[in-house]
Design goal:
- The structure is a single chain.
- The protein has about 80 residues and is mainly alpha-helical.
- The chain has one domain.
- Helices cover about 40% and strands about 5% of the residues.
């Protein structure tokens, strides 16, 4: 449900979803050794993906499942 102001979507404006990688010593070493993204990701103990952040915003009622899927891609390993 929505109104003309939100073009019938129930949402208005933009909201970012963010990925966060905590840089600890192991991740820093992989970066300094010019590791590829898979090596850096595997060294990380704490990473919050775009989909994780999107899911948190879905739970808070700030966006929809379909919108998060539209703007993110599934991790492929």
């Amino acid at each position: 449900n929505g109104c003309p102001g939100c073009q019938g979507t129930g949402y208005r404006g933009r909201m970012g979803i963010h990925e966060m990688l905590m840089i600890d010593d192991e991740v820093r070493n992989r970066i300094m050794q010019r590791g590829n993204s898979n090596q850096i990701r595997s060294a990380s103990r704490t990473i919050r993906s775009l989909r994780y952040d999107g899911a948190q915003k879905i739970l808070r009622g700030l966006t929809s499942f379909d919108e998060v899927l539209r703007v993110t891609q599934e991790d492929v390993l």
